[in-house]
Write a structure and sequence with these properties.
Elements lengths: L5 H20 L39 E3 L17 E2 L1 E3 L15 E6 L18 E2 L6 E3 L2 E6 L4 E7 L3 E8 L2 E9 L8 E9 L4 E9 L5 E9 L4 E10 L6 E13 L3 E10 L3 H11 L5 H16 L2 E4 L3 H14 L4 E2 L6 E3 L5 E3 L7 E2 L1 E2 H4 L3 H8 L1 H18 L5 E3 L2 E2 L8 H10 L7 H12 L13 H4 L3 H7 L11 H21 L3 H11 L6 E2 L4 E2 L16 E3 L10 H4 L7 H7 L3 H13 L5 E4 L7 E2 L2 E2 L18 H14 L16 H11 L1 E2 L7 E4 L6 E5 L5 E7 L7 E7 L2 E2 L4 E3 H5 L2 E8 L9
Parallel strand pairs: 27-28, 34-38
Antiparallel strand pairs: 1-3, 2-5, 4-10, 6-7, 7-8, 8-9, 9-16, 10-15, 11-12, 12-13, 13-16, 14-15, 17-33, 18-21, 19-20, 22-23, 23-24, 25-26, 29-30, 31-32, 32-37, 33-34, 35-36, 35-38
């Protein structure tokens, strides 16, 4: 495995020690632990993790970093560890997703002739790409550096919330410079508009508008250079190859002379509003040329966040996995508000927040409702409420809650309407500092089949508001011959409708409480007792044939990124009902056992690549499986939950570039690890109860709001001692493998006694 290098560790130690000093200098409390030193941003940059190593601050709008490839599934973040060339440093990226966009405003230092001729569709490199080695590459939270072999230039990057700062160390040359490439973007997106405006010999501004995953994405920029330049603009149309055809080009070729080891700095601000907003963002957040100050401020910000959870272990790899997980979890959602409070709304109009309020984008809700947002309710419920307020605004601006919002664009990606999960979960836990009536009204709107008033392209409507919701509401199920992914949609709708029922009941809306409680039982329609699986049912009431529970046809069958084995278990809101549906506890356990023991073959000619991290047919690399291990706690066999949690924690997560078994998915893969490594997991967001698994660490200290502390002690803990012998919660014996959110939020202690043998603890 390619673990974090000694070079990186040495640099981290230097950076963090300085950061701690800076923290003291700014009159903030110095942290006893340098949590930043544990983070390895390269985790997930190989395999199919789709993460990127560039510098970013928590929830930063700007995410600068190296791009090593343009096309392909593993280019989703722009960076792929096996590559050996860098195209340049763009300023927008998405972390760990299975879909791609961004890669905007690419800047590349050059020495010598500036080559910019087009490359064909098959090429992953632009003409001016540079070779590099991982031996000269370092990434820590808030800082990235690499040596560009082709040009003999050392590149360094750091960032604030809305601006980036670059520092380049050049060799002696009369032909030094930069290429600012505006037409560059990941996946060769369609560039609708591009403008470069040279304001002076040190200033450039401009904008571009692209159409890709985000159907209309504007990004404005302002750049300030520490060294004057001469320039040439490339503004034309060129034929790339027969497949790509003609494409517009927009580049600025900047030139100057440099002495040996001369440093040239660049400050970059971006905005979705206008060029003046981009300028204001960088002038406010990076007013001077102090690169180290920006770097250290980013490090301090990360240390402050990471310190919310302190874990004790002698295993450095476990520390790296855990704190890198926290790091990944806090990259998105991203602030989308300029320093003056303006932002681009879902209606693509400019709005303004109230002072001190932010508006966010990048909501991968199909993934993150499961563990990311429940974890935010523990660590920072106020911030989670900020996310909810953004979602409410999006529903008002665009007509409906987004499923996957990117740069204030509906993408219609994935299924369900999981914004209601965030709202129901926060409300059930007592966090209600948002307009619940607006939130509830929008939840009802999302659950009904209504294609009117949604501000998006006409072609998107059937995906954003699928006809499945009509069938769910009228005949009680989704016929598999009437809509794609019918079973998966039906199961997720049942859960989301349960969330709405909880809100309706809490708000005294009896009629809708009854209605949506009935809809929440809709999962029962898909269960075929003759096969023991959730199965497609057509409009004539016939089961789809042929039927193979191992079969997968990616995004073009009755399931979503999975098969019947994985989707049969998606009933988090009614485990007892699922047990009864399967014929009782004994048969349920037998079926659940077989999930983890059957062979892992996925069958079909177009199987979903997202089905990964397999234990039997359990697919940890994709989100629909994430709650299943904890089902054993509901049926009186908690030791099996403990065994399987231990297996996943120790065999499917590594301190390695290929350390994730699937896409990071905006922190969900990591959030599962974080919660389970602490010893618990929330099976059903909206029901504020946690299921106890197998704590990985000897001691976990969670700093809660108002400086309350919740501490988990795992006594007699070791690799071999993976079973629970006894639990005390606030000095009271806990006999069931569950506890509530109230048990956490008030502070307290949990003591878990571990042993190397199965016990009867927690059997109910």
């Amino acid at each position: 495995m390619r673990k974090i290098s000694l070079l990186v560790r040495g640099f981290i130690g230097l950076i963090v020690s300085i950061a701690s000093y800076a923290c003291v200098e700014s009159s903030e409390a110095a942290l006893e632990e340098d949590y930043v030193s544990y983070v390895n941003p390269f985790i997930g940059t190989g395999g199919h993790g789709h993460t990127f190593p560039g510098p970013v601050v928590p929830h930063g709008m700007i995410q600068p970093g190296p791009d090593t490839r343009i096309d392909g599934w593993d280019s989703c973040s722009g960076y792929y560890y096996p590559d050996s060339t860098i195209n340049g440093f763009s300023h927008t990226h998405i972390s760990g997703t299975g879909c791609c966009d961004y890669g905007d405003i690419l800047l590349m230092p050059t020495v010598g002739e500036q080559r910019y001729e087009p490359t064909g569709l098959a090429s992953q490199q632009v003409a001016y790409a540079s070779a590099f080695s991982h031996d000269s590459e370092v990434a820590v939270p808030g800082y990235y550096t690499v040596y560009l072999k082709t040009y003999g230039v050392k590149a360094e990057l750091s960032a604030t919330t809305r601006a980036a700062i670059h520092r380049y160390t050049f060799p002696q040359s009369s032909e030094s410079g930069f290429i600012l490439d505006l037409d560059y973007s990941l996946q060769r997106q369609e560039n609708k508009e591009m403008v470069i405006d040279v304001l002076s010999d040190t200033e450039i501004r401009g904008y571009k508008r692209t159409a890709y995953w985000a159907f209309d994405q504007p990004v404005y920029f302002y750049m300030k250079f520490s060294k004057p330049f001469t320039y040439k603009l490339v503004d034309d149309t060129v034929t790339v190859d027969d497949e790509v055809g003609e494409q517009a080009r927009m580049k600025a070729l900047l030139n100057f002379s440099t002495s040996q080891n001369e440093q040239v700095l660049v400050k970059v601000g971006i905005s979705a509003v206008d060029m003046e907003g981009a300028r204001a963002n960088v002038e406010k957040e990076i007013p001077d040329w102090d690169f180290d100050k920006v770097c250290l401020s980013a490090s301090v910000a990360w240390n402050q966040f990471l310190s919310k959870i302190d874990v004790h272990t002698e295993d450095r790899d476990q520390l790296a996995i855990f704190y890198t997980g926290l790091y990944h979890m806090a990259i998105a959602p991203s602030i989308f508000t300029d320093v003056d409070g303006r932002y681009l709304g879902m209606d693509h109009q400019i709005h303004k927040t109230t002072p001190g309020e932010n508006y966010y984008t990048i909501f991968s809700l199909w993934d993150t409702f499961r563990a990311v947002h429940p974890l935010w309710t523990i660590l920072d419920p106020k911030l989670n409420s900020d996310f909810i307020r953004s979602l409410i605004k999006k529903s008002e601006e665009g007509g409906i809650y987004p499923k996957w919002d990117m740069a204030s664009n509906y993408t219609a990606t994935m299924i369900g309407y999981h914004a209601v999960s965030l709202i129901a979960d926060a409300y059930a836990k007592g966090y209600r500092d948002f307009d619940i009536q607006k939130a509830y009204k929008a939840a009802l709107r999302a659950a009904e089949y209504d294609t009117t008033g949604i501000k998006c392209p006409r072609w998107m409507i059937p995906y954003l508001m699928p006809v499945a919701r009509y069938y769910k509401n009228t005949i009680g199920y989704i016929p598999c011959d009437k809509d794609n992914e019918a079973v998966a949609k039906g199961l997720e709708y049942a859960y989301d409708d349960w969330c709405i029922a909880q809100l309706a009941s809490a708000l005294g809306d009896t009629a809708n409480a009854v209605k949506y409680t009935r809809f929440a039982k809709g999962y029962q329609k898909y269960y075929d007792p003759s096969t023991g699986f959730m199965r497609g049912l057509d409009s004539h009431g016939k089961w789809r044939t042929p039927f193979n529970p191992k079969a997968s046809n990616h995004r073009n069958d009755d399931y979503c990124e999975g098969n019947a084995w994985q989707w049969t278990w998606f009933v988090p809101h009614d485990v007892d009902g699922l047990v009864n549906l399967m014929g009782g506890r004994t048969k349920f356990i037998q079926k659940l056992d077989s999930l983890f023991t059957i062979d892992s073959t996925i069958e079909g000619t177009a199987t979903s690549v997202d089905i990964s991290g397999l234990i039997g047919q359990y697919a940890h690399g994709n989100e629909p499986s994430h709650h299943m291990i904890h089902f054993y706690n509901y049926v009186g066999q908690p030791w099996k939950t403990q065994e399987l949690v231990d297996k996943v924690l120790t065999t499917l997560y590594f301190n390695d570039v290929e350390g994730l078994s699937g896409n990071e998915d905006c922190g969900q893969m990591s959030a599962w690890y974080i919660m389970n490594a602490m010893g618990f997991y929330q099976v059903c967001p909206g029901f504020p109860v946690y299921s106890i698994g197998r704590p990985l660490f000897d001691k976990v200290t969670i700093t809660l709001p108002e400086n309350k502390i919740f501490t988990i002690f795992a006594k007699n803990n070791s690799k071999g001692n993976k079973y629970i012998k006894a639990v005390k919660l606030n000095n009271k014996t806990l006999d069931t493998p569950f506890f509530t959110h109230d048990d956490i939020k008030g502070g307290g202690t949990m003591e878990i006694i571990m042993t190397n043998k199965r016990t009867n603890w927690g059997i109910n």
